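Supplementary Methods. Inverse-folding protocol.

Structures were first reduced to a discrete structure-token string of length 224. This string, shown here, constituted the complete conditioning input.
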């Protein structure tokens, strides 16, 4: 029986990998990476010399067939993303689904837990965490306004990811639809310039407008 490991990797600081993740990545026959160049930095740090192969959102069906072929031969594979837990707002979710559909119990899918930005952000936000909804990345256009209306009406904490290119537009939308809600911006989590900033959408928009360097990096947005 082949094993397929879903391995969480650090979201920024490379020291945040688990002992079990290092052991797993060292022992498998092949590591599937969102970007092999990004994963190489992590593997080099821990002296891991296992072969890698790319798998991402634009991978063709032939790549999936190659993965199936390796599993049929009894190879043990690991899946990693560029940062965090594969399958969470990540193309790895589709691959895991395809493997389970094709092989059932013949291939054991084993999670190796670790960092994920949504939980990391919530844990230090100071906002209510007993009940929350994770929205992943918001749509760029279609359905975006409807989603902000739902965020405004929500009775639980709402969490989503946003890019530096759209963070100002997102804060403007929050200002429009839920101006009185408390929002936490978690930026560059576990990295050198990690920052948590909390306030109303208006306050945060003013802060970002006045500090263009604070608009850089990846954001996790938490709306109480």
């Amino acid at each position: 029986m082949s094993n397929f490991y879903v391995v969480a990797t650090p979201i920024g600081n490379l020291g945040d990998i688990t002992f079990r993740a290092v052991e797993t990545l060292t022992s498998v026959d092949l590591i599937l990476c969102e970007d092999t160049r990004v994963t190489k930095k992590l593997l080099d740090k821990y002296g891991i010399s296992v072969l890698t192969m790319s798998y991402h959102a634009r991978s063709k069906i032939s790549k999936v067939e190659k993965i199936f072929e390796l599993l049929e031969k009894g190879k043990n594979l690991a899946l990693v993303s560029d940062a965090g837990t594969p399958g969470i707002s990540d193309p790895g979710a589709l691959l895991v689904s395809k493997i389970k559909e094709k092989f059932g119990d013949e291939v054991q899918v084993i999670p190796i837990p670790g960092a994920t930005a949504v939980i990391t952000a919530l844990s230090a936000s100071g906002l209510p965490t007993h009940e929350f909804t994770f929205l992943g990345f918001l749509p760029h256009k279609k359905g975006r306004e409807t989603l902000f209306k739902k965020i405004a009406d929500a009775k639980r904490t709402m969490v989503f990811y946003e890019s530096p290119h759209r963070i100002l537009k997102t804060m403007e939308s929050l200002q429009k639809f839920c101006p009185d809600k408390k929002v936490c911006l978690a930026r560059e989590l576990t990295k050198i310039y990690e920052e948590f900033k909390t306030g109303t959408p208006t306050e945060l928009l003013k802060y970002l407008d006045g500090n263009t360097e604070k608009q850089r990096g990846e954001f996790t947005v938490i709306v109480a």
